[in-house]
Amino acid sequence: MGPGTLWMLAFFAIPVIVMCGYSFMPRGTYGGVDPGFTLEAYARFLHPVYLTILERTFVVALVCTVLCALTGYPVAYAIARSTKWRTLLLFLVVLPFWTSFLVRTFAMIFLMRDTGLINTWLLRLHLIQQPLTMLYTPFAVLLGLVYGYLPFMILPIYASLEKLDTSLLEAAEVLGARPTARFLRVTLPLSTPGLIAGSLLVFIPSLGSFLTSDLLGGAKGLLVGNLIQNQFSTARNWPFGSAASLILMTLVLIAVLIYLRLRLRPE
Amino acid sequence: MTRAIPRWLIVFTGIVLFLMHLPVLVLVVFSFNSSKFAVDWTGFTTHWYARLAEREDIVNALRNSLIVGVTATIIAVALGTLIALALARHRFRGKTLYEGLMYVPIVTPEIVTGISLLVMFVFLRFPLGLTTIVVAHVAFSIPFVVVVVMARLAGMDENLEEAAMTLGADEITAFRKVTIPLLWPGIISAALLTFILSFDDFVITSFVAGSGSSTLPLVIYSMVRRNIEPSINAISTLIVLATTILLYVAEQLTREKKAHA
After folding, report:
1. Model confidence band, residue B90 (pLDDT cutoffs 50, 70, 90)
2. Where are the domains of chain B?
3. Which helix (H) or strand (E) holds A222?
4. pLDDT tens digits, one per residue of A217-265
5. Residues from chain A contacting residue B236 (CB–CB below 8 Å)
6. Does residue B139 belong to the interface with chain A, where contact is any CB pair within 8 Å?
7. Exposed/middle/buried for B133, CB within 10 Å: 0-12, 13-18, 19+?
8. Touching check for B111 and chain A: CB below 8 Å?
9. Burial of residue A208 (number of CB atoms within 10 Å: 0-12, 13-18, 19+)
């Protein structure tokens, strides 16, 4: 076994196993755990309060994925069909992908807060009488997530559209298919793998997101990521935080397995 | 395809790409604004940049970030390249499973990775600090290195190594004189991307950093939380600038690969 594999075992696999162990232990008073075995943490998660948070997280991730798909597909399509500008356009998509998520989230705050740029201009133009509350709302979280993860959607769709065999479209045209039919019956089905991959790449980080809802969301918009973080800061309930982490990780792996099933399914 | 792209599509794409960059552009512009309240343009200044250098916490954090970034990059690239070579050049039992498992850390939510490392370090009573940050960064970077280097290896001709060995080079010489030089652009671009990942990481670092070992993102986070001041714009601008340059170099290296292949 190579050193790389050992590193991943020691600092990825084993920590997850230790965390799994913690989730079955009684909570310590000042954080950490006390010795013993209990299913308390998991039982606690079944409380409606936490199930609501889980449901909300799921809905937010799903809506974010749909919004990214609707916005990202046309963009990916345009880039795949462009010739002269393609390199520049791709760089413009890749750049935010690599730009600090924290900086980008801060940029959203800068625009959206009550005394931010959007409100100031809208007030100046007398379009509104008082500042719109944009920050610390579910809308801000959703916008932040779409803004954050859109490149994850565009790139895989672009990759599958770029590979598309254009002679198929010509064949469809020769056979009398109109542009809409050509798109719906040739382009769209052939780019479905990219669309599915992109959806997974947006859905997964949205499900586990923490920073966006932490900085842009209000107290009522708590997501699973924030719930987990709270258990290790203020709430000091490590077993519960560990259990919630494992549940989140399980959901993500289920999403990946569904993706693999979809991808490996024979046409 | 010779057919023209519909005009509405061009307009839509233009708007989306513009909006994708607008927030950061605004941030950059206002980092040069002399007003502290940042909504009115009151004049050009580099005052906020000068302020950064005066702040000891930021200078310290930058130093920590650089130490962590460079160390983690070197370790992750070395270990990741070895895994990529093993996967590309050798057949072994359970290889497909191994490759699949390599993706698990990539899809695992950052918060879960961070929490699990925190729990383990506390369990082992290992003190949190720069070491634990480096360990964590290496762990989340290795799979990325493997993916990038394997992409490069996929486009490489295995026969070249065999040719070198036929011509009398031993395995180590062939590796040193043929494999590594051919792989080099892939390794460098993996290194640049790893450095960006490490330098920008907030979520995982926030769990495994001890007191006094704050990296730049941690300091920025606490600044954003406390109150919004133009210094944050200045430091953000510098980070965006550095990322853009590193990414551009990495892209150039990847493009060279395509030209040769």
Report:
1. confident
2. 48-260
3. none
4. 988 889 999 999 999 988 899 999 999 999 999 999 999 999 888 877 6
5. 100, 103, 106-107
6. yes
7. buried
8. yes
9. buried
Confidence bin at A69 (pLDDT 50/70/90): very high
Q: Which SS3 state, helix, strand or coil, does residue A31 take?
A: strand
pLDDT of residue B2: 46
Cα–Cα nearest to B58, from B207, B195, B214, B196: B214
The rounded distance, in Å, linking the Cα atoms of A7 and B82 is 12
Q: Please, where are the H alpha helices in chain A? A: 3-8, 14-23, 40-45, 48-81, 86-98, 101-112, 117-124, 138-162, 166-174, 179-182, 188-207, 211-216, 224-232, 238-264
CB A115 within 8 A of CB B37: yes
Provide the whole-model pTM.
0.91
Q: Are residues B239 and A103 in contact, defined by beta-carbon separation less than 8 angstroms? A: yes
Model confidence at B260: pLDDT above 60? no
| Token output for B89 | 């050049």
ipTM: 0.90
Count helices and strands (H / E) in chain B: 13, 0
Q: Which residues of B touch A102 (CB under 8 A)?
A: 200, 202, 217, 220-221, 224
- pLDDT tens digits, one per residue of B190-230: 999 899 999 999 999 999 998 889 999 999 999 999 877 88
The minimal CB distance from A12 to the residues B16, B105, B217 is found for B105
Locate tokens 């650089």: which residue? B66
Q: Tell me whether residue A216 is exposed, middle or buried, using C-beta atoms within 10 angstroms of its C-beta: 0 to 12, 13 to 18, 19 or more.
A: buried
CA-closest candidate to residue B200, choices B179, B216, B177, B219: B216
DSSP A125: T
Tell me which residue in A11, A14, A75 faces B16 most closely, judged by beta carbons: A75
d(CA A178, CA B52): 60
Phi then psi dihedrals of residue B101, to 5 deg? -65, -30
Structure tokens given for B259? 């030209």
Rounded distance, CA A243 to CA B141, Å? 25
Question: What residue segments make up the domains of chain A, in order of their start?
Answer: 48-264
Residue B33 — φ and ψ, nearest 5°? -90, 135
Q: Is B6 helix (H, G, I), strand (E, B) or coil?
A: coil
CATH fold of the domain at B48-260 = MetI-like fold (1.10.3720)
Q: List the beta bridge partners of residue A31.
A: A29
Nearest CA distance, B149 vs chain A (angstrom)? 14
Write down the CATH superfamily of domain A48-264: MetI-like (1.10.3720.10)
Average pLDDT over residues B42-51: 91
- The sign one gets for the Cα dihedral A200, A162, B251, B10 is negative
